[in-house]
Amino acid sequence: MRAHPQPSNYKMRKRIQLFMAVLLAAYVWLASMPVEAFANESNPAQEDQAIYQLLKSGKRPPQEKSYQTPEQPTVYLTFDDGPSKLTPQVLDILQKEGIHATFFALGEEAKARPDLIKRIIAEGHTLGNHTYNHVYNELYSDFQVFWKQIQESETIFDQIAGVRPQLVRAPGGTYTNFDAYYFYLLEQAGYTIVDWNVDSGDSTRANVPVKEIIHTVKSSPLEHEITLLLHDGAGHESSVEALPQIIQYYKDLGYAFAPLTSEVKPKQFSVGKPKWSRKMSLTHFEDLLQETKQYALAHGQPSPESDKAANQLVNQTQVAQAESAQTLPPAPSLPLQVNVGGGRGFTLEPTQYQLQSSRIELSLRFLVEKMGGYISWMEPVKTAIAHYGVYDVEYDLPKRSIRLFNLGKRVASYSMADMQMREGSIIVPLRKTIDLLGGRVTDAVMETDKREVTLAWHHLFMLNETPILLKNSLFALK
């Protein structure tokens, strides 16, 4: 009987050699690939881990976003905890004053008073998200709870008024409540977190007196942009009563009022050590990050509310001008004396300036040339350049922007600039133009028989080509 043949050692060796040859060829091919081909490929898991470690250390990744800076000093009135039975009174005051504000509403209160949410939107105010129920123990126990409350309120706002607010204010503010994870995850979802730089003090305790609220506001530092914290929730009758006086205080200082938008650089507190005991594992962070990024993809388009608010910001100069309901005759019957120190100055005839409330408007060329500077006009780009001492100020009419240069170095830019062309001349406000040129209006007299302003500088400047040095003459406007 013939035996069946067995695989020979020769055939086995051939198979092994073939396998090794293929393996060697693959190794040679991989080795010949440039290192960059692998280094440049992103590894999402590694990136998330790196971000996680950064946030765990309490640091926030830098944001690369540009914001609009209003040319006129601006107050952003913000109201938290509503809507309540007091909100209609707040809205009535704002309507009477002709200004717009921002309302950080609670979903729970919005659900109970949907008509007030509709009115806030209809009257041109910005609606922000202040979570659903304002309960600290829940909101700051874990980011997922905060996130769900933001989503719940947003759904309510959408059902009531068709808007999904992208501005978020944390109950109690972010300091010691938020950690770096809270900030980062909300930003990844497309939200803007807004704190404040002036606290009216109307929620430090129950029934804060009106005088105390007003005193707190007036004692607060003045900045170019002020985000003021107020409350329109139940129990804040004093806030409503103080509101007209607060508005008048800032108006007298020359501030405009505008609603917050995503184009306004938000006031944010630094990341402090959280007073809440909570932990964030890498797995939990990755799950939350995935959820927030999916939200951003699903809601990538700006909401109707944000479009409306952006238009309000662009037009805030016109809104600010409309706030002054009382105006003096456009052609004043008195000349205006402008003093610049050292017994020098010049006079504006009644036809050479306009006075609206306490606001003086005049020709840019006339003002600069009277002070010893000069104007260059670039016709192709419709831009005027005011040259004065160490300062050059570009007035870009098409873009309505101002660019300020000191010794040739660009030091500031302002959007939505307050300027307009009238009969071939650029008309500008006196006070803000003097500020840009390195000076201040130190005194102003606007009486029935006398109109006079006094200017001062810290630096050497030219008046009719004569050097003048003003020493220690820079004071706040009386």
Write structural notes for this entry.
It is globular and about 110 Å long. It has helices at 9-32, 36-39, 44-56, 87-97, 107-112, 114-122, 136-139, 143-161, 180-188, 210-219, 237-252, 282-298, 304-314, 316-323, 364-370, 430-436, and strands at residues 74-80, 102-105, 126-129, 167-168, 192-193, 198-199, 225-231, 256-257, 336-341, 344-348, 353-356, 359-363, 374-378, 383-388, 391-396, 401-406, 409-414, 420-422, 425-429, 439-446, 451-457, 461-463, 466-468. β14 (383-388) and β15 (391-396) form a beta hairpin. It has 2 domains: 74-322, TIM Barrel (Alpha-Beta Barrel), CATH 3.20.20; 336-468, no CATH class. It has 16 helices and 23 strands. α10 packs parallel to α11 (237-252). Strands 1, 2, 3, 6, 7 and 8 form a 6-stranded parallel beta sheet that branches. The protein is an alpha/beta fold. Its EC number is 3.-.-.-. InterPro entries: Glyco_hydro/deAcase_b/a-brl, NODB_dom, Polysacc_deacetylase_ArnD. Keywords: Hydrolase.
Q: End-to-end distance, in Å?
A: 126 Å
Report the strand count: 23
CATH architecture name of the largest domain = Alpha-Beta Barrel
Low-confidence regions: 1-7, 35-41, 301-331, 459-478
**Overall number of structural domains:** 2
Class of secondary structure makeup: alpha/beta
The CATH superfamily of the largest domain appears as Glycoside hydrolase/deacetylase
Give the DSSP E fraction (strand runs of 2 or more residues).
Answer: 15-25%
Whole-number radius of gyration? 31 Å
Portion of residues within helices? 25-40%
Query: Averaged pLDDT, please?
Result: 82
Subunit organisation of the chains? single chain
Specify the overall morphology.
globular
CATH class of the largest domain: Alpha Beta
> Major sheet: size, sense and barrel closure?
6 strands, parallel
Give the helix tally.
16
